[in-house]
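Predicting holo structure, benzoyl coenzyme A bound.
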Amino acid sequence: MPETTHVDYSTKIPNNVGLMDDQRVLKALEQWHPGYLDWWQTMGPEGFQTSEVYLRTAVSIDPKGWAKFDYVKMPDYRWGILLAPRHQERQVNFGAHKGEPAWQEVPGEYRAMLRRLIVIQGDTEPASVEQQRFLGKTAPSLYDMRNLFQVNVEEGRHLWAMVYLLQKYFGKDGREEADGLLQRRSGDADKPRMLGAFNEETPDWLSFFMFTFFTDRDGKMQLESLAQSGFDPLSRTCRFMLTEEAHHMFVGETGVGRAIEATCTAMKAAGIEDPNDIAAVRKLGVIDLPTMQKKANLHFSLSLDLFGSEVSTNAANYYNSGVKGRFQETRIDDDHLLTSASYPVSKLIDGQIRMVDEPALTAINMRLRDDYVTDCAKGVERWNKVIEKTGIGFRFKLPHVAFHRHIGEFQNVKASPDGRVLSDAEWTKAKDQWVPSKADGDFIQSLMAPCWERGKFASWIAPPKIGIDNKGGDFEYVKIHQA
Ligand code: BYC
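Done. Tokens:
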């Protein structure tokens, strides 16, 4: 079957890329499949492998008609290979090859570079499933549990997406990399996942929501940049992944929004006006707003690290070669070569944080990070609207980009959330006000009791405005039958 918008589910590996006519790749994927299932069983959501989950499966890549909802046991989910439609006239839109037809095969000179980018992207997907594997047990509702599992199976599919590219276009070393993706483990001392944020723990549901808000949003920015790639199969697979990524960010934004709503509503009902009266707010069985701000500080700073160094020759090479572009590259009004342009970069100079013009080509990571910060700030404003409506005097704020960093220009300095450079002693004294302390973590953990009754929600989170697939809040989104 040739490439279509329709996904062929008659084969073991659903796809819209004519896999039946590509026996070499089909065979490689079939060989990889049992290892993947084994990984899913051992590292996927723990305790729910036999539960029936009301999941969405893609049946077409047409943006209007691609979802089908039904009860599925997660190990039976039809993970497949789905690429957005090919545009015959598509070109390389930036860098030294600008104007050439987009590549349908990997250019030999960029093979290592492309493989590296695909492996890094692929590595994050199973990592996030590993990080979230214990959360089902403390789900604050069946609705939230279902959303967690939807995110998890889609991250699994995103891994399939990258593995397909590795096996189809990178021969023997691609197959080895595909195996490696199943061998590394989040947080493992000997075989960690590749990027920092993907080795952190996701110990509670507030972390999960912050992660899907902040870190999945990095995913969106990176996928948008890879969707610009001159290597057309990478572009097409990322374009389809982006349609799924949007739901993950929705889960994060509304999850935090609902936690904020529950807190503000409880405060109002108890007559508590001061959001900083933490002890009184916590007694209500909700998470105080300052602790949520600390969680946001943590996840924002970890996610900023995922953009790499502000000034990066790697990024310049990716761009110049046409393999990774900027966010919404084709909508930017410039020469798309960047040979003489400059871009302002925040740097540490003589102990002060200053803006310095750098060649735009080497500042690609910084630019993408700026676009990301703008996108995050819009979501944070939507959280603030939730607070405003209740009349509580508190606003969330993104910390300064120098705050709590481990990669790039600010990795060796300590800075406050408002961007003041601090001594080590000042940082140590104040840090518990800015990132969650052990006591904060323990308090949040104390609220993480499962709430699995139909239509019920844990005290610390408000019900959603609307359900999934037009179902109500009391729909049985997961039929648990625990193993
Ligand atoms: N951790 O020039 P530099 C997602 C390394 S999230 C560890 O500054 P570059 C998702 C770097 O590898 C999106 N190491 O950076 C979300 C390099 O090493 P070498 C995932 C790091 O290369 C939620 C050295 O430092 N996709 O999809 O320009 C759930 C100097 O590098 C880190 C991608 O990231 C780090 N944070 O940019 C599920 C897209 N940062 O060469 C999924 C693909 C840098 O000295 N990746 N290093 O050995 C890329 O585009 C780039 O590789 C990076 C780094 C943006 C990550």
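The longest strand covers residues 342-349.
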